[in-house]
Specification:
This protein has about 300 residues and is an alpha+beta fold. It is about 20% helix and about 30% strand. Strand 8 (about 145-150) and strand 9 form a beta hairpin. The protein binds zinc ion.
Length: about 300
């Protein structure tokens, strides 16, 4: 299973453009996801999200609410409370605490985790797109939080949430004895021993396959002969979609670009089976986190 991609909501993409319809969703039945500095509201000391109800939030600036969708007849909304008066915020979130969803990661029930990660991504997009990219005028939320509209009558530019594509690939090579290995690398800033798949953003003007080939060559000096798409993962941390590939190397010779990676190595399945889990305090090679598509690709290959 790929984490953060299990959204259970009907987005009502057409209906949400109708303000009257939207207001009717803000009922006693609705559920509210609060986001504070990229953190989501959890019950204290547990990986369980804490939703507020309409009665709890109705005095807040709900015109800035983002409609997420509906499930079982209940509307779900996200609300950025980062700038809310701390005393008001404290009284709202009694029994809860704001936490980075990735600090709990796989422990969060994944349908709800997908709601929280979508909320976080959309709130981030609004925060970073407050001015019209065409004329510089301050813009405002539109279409239930899925658009921003420039009020300049000579412009009226509409901006939509963007997702930055990034490729992530498990590069494979089979030696003359028929032993297959995968290429993993590590950045110096990562926890000791953690090795992961290579990855990078897609440049303008290149296909996904070209991005895979370029990133592998830039980071590890390895040429590839093919790239096969496997799966994708929404990754709103802050605004990416990860596009996962298996790639085949022409030659296993590695030349690490130290600006990009600290190290890169080939590992057999048997070697991977000796890796420690991410987060282990023992010394040794470690796998990536369970909630990453990197881990998904590694598990898919080694099973
Ligand atoms: Zn404008």
């Amino acid at each position: 299973m790929l984490f953060y991609t299990q959204l259970p909501l009907n987005r009502h993409s057409q209906e949400r453009k109708d303000n009257n319809w939207l207001l009717r969703q803000q009922t006693n039945n609705s559920k509210w996801v609060l986001v504070h500095n990229h953190h989501s509201l959890f019950k204290a000391n547990t990986p369980e999200l804490l939703f507020l109800d309409y009665q709890q939030v109705k005095s807040l600036p709900l015109w800035e609410a983002i409609y997420l969708g509906s499930m079982n007849g209940q509307g779900y909304f996200a609300l950025d409370v980062t700038d809310l008066d701390p005393s008001i915020l404290d009284s709202l979130v009694l029994g809860g605490e704001f936490k980075d969803i990735r600090s709990y990661g796989p422990l969060v029930e994944q349908q709800l985790g997908s709601i929280a990660s979508l909320s976080r991504g959309l709130v981030h997009w609004h925060k970073t797109h407050r001015f019209c990219g065409r004329c510089g005028t301050k813009n405002s939320m539109f279409e239930a939080g899925h658009c921003r509209l420039c009020p300049n009558p000579n412009c009226k530019h509409m901006t939509f949430p963007r997702t930055d594509p990034a490729v992530i690939m498990l590069v494979l090579h089979e030696d003359k004895q028929g032993v297959e290995r995968c290429l993993l690398g590590r950045q110096a800033s990562w926890p000791e021993g953690v090795y992961s798949t290579l990855a990078g953003f897609v440049d303008p003007g290149e296909s996904l396959e070209q991005a895979v080939a370029r990133e592998v060559e830039e980071e590890a000096g390895v040429m590839i002969k093919s790239a096969e798409y496997v799966a994708s993962q929404s990754w709103p941390f802050p605004s990416s979609i990860m596009l996962g590939f298996f790639a085949r190397a022409v030659d296993p010779t590695i030349f690490v670009d130290k600006h990009e990676l600290d190290d890169a190595r080939w590992f057999t399945r048997e070697e991977l089976n000796t890796f420690l889990e991410w987060g282990s305090d023992q010394t040794g090679y470690k796998l990536t986190r369970h909630d990453s598509i990197s881990r998904f690709l590694i598990e898919k290959w080694r099973k």
